[in-house]
Design brief:
single chain, mainly alpha, about 75% helix, disordered C terminus
């Protein structure tokens, strides 16, 4: 949501650069939060990748931030935290619970935030509600888990909706 709102007031190139920083923030936040000291090669990679991303996506070396940049930066930090915590959780817990929680959390949060950021007609609400239907969630879960999970009735999935 932060990235989408940020795109209203920043350029797509700046948004791409800031969003891509999320991957580069992972080792930095890993050090700050979990005291995982990055190797020298990792630090060098972060510096080189940041410079490369800047050269690829930024139109100028202007270092000012506008409202859209800040919103997109929040998104980058959220992505980085997500990468860190998923990496920790998956080694300690059941990844299927995590997938179910992510799908449910996304459905609830998007339902709460959607009327705040968009004006929706009846058709849009039907589409949004359908995207949270059991058949749709089952397909998302199967896509996320890959070949380990198979839809028990793929020819009947969601025909009633």
């Amino acid at each position: 949501i932060f990235q989408t709102l940020g795109l209203r007031t920043t350029s797509p190139a700046r948004s791409a650069f800031i969003t891509a920083l999320s991957v580069l923030l992972v080792p930095v936040l890993g050090f700050l939060l979990f005291h995982h000291r990055p190797r020298r090669q990792t630090v060098a990679g972060v510096v080189i990748a940041t410079a490369g991303l800047g050269l690829l996506t930024l139109e100028s070396l202007e270092l000012s931030l506008n409202r859209g940049d800040v919103l997109t930066l929040i998104c980058a930090f959220v992505f980085a935290f997500h990468i860190l915590y998923v990496g920790r959780y998956v080694t300690e817990g059941d990844y299927r619970q995590l997938v179910a929680l992510q799908i449910a959390g996304s459905a609830v949060l998007s339902t709460i935030i959607l009327p705040i950021v968009e004006s929706l007609g009846p058709r849009s609400w039907r589409l949004h509600i359908h995207s949270g239907s059991p058949g749709h969630r089952r397909r998302l879960l199967c896509a996320e888990l890959g070949p380990e999970v198979h839809d028990p009735e793929p020819d009947r999935a969601d025909l009633q909706h």
